[in-house]
Amino acid sequence: MKILLNEAQRELYNELVGIYGAMVSQNNTSKLVGKSIATLYRERVEGVGIAYKQGITKGKNKAVHYPLQEIVKYLTSDLVQTVRRGAWYEIIIN
User: Fold this and answer.
1) Spans of all domains in the chain
2) 14-35 as b/e, with b when 16 or more CB fall inside 10 Å?
């Protein structure tokens, strides 16, 4: 994980860490970034979006938490990340 780069990010982090802690639940991350839990899940599956950590528990459902530092970087980023679906097409002529 990279350190926060600028003063604005540090200020936002310091403001939010008292509320959410250093590791933020999936539900609270959803509220912070304005995305549904389903969208966060899809982004994890597709390998895009905010870096996350999956807990170690028994069974198939493992708790997912997002480092607050990564959420702050996401919220303050001016980059636009896109995923192009169906970029490659196969044309079959019968």
Assistant:
1) 7-76
2) eebeeebeebbeeebbbebbeb
The pTM assigned to this predicted structure is 0.74
CATH topology of domain 7-76: Multidrug-efflux Transporter Regulator; Chain: A; Domain 2 (1.10.1660)
Q: Return the DSSP state at 49.
A: S
CA–CA dist 5, 52 (Å, integer): 19
CA distance 47 to 83: 10
Place of tokens 């870096």: 51
**pLDDT digit string (tens) for the chain, length 94 residues:** 556 678 889 999 999 999 999 999 999 999 999 999 999 999 999 988 899 998 866 666 678 999 999 999 999 887 655 554 544 444 444 3
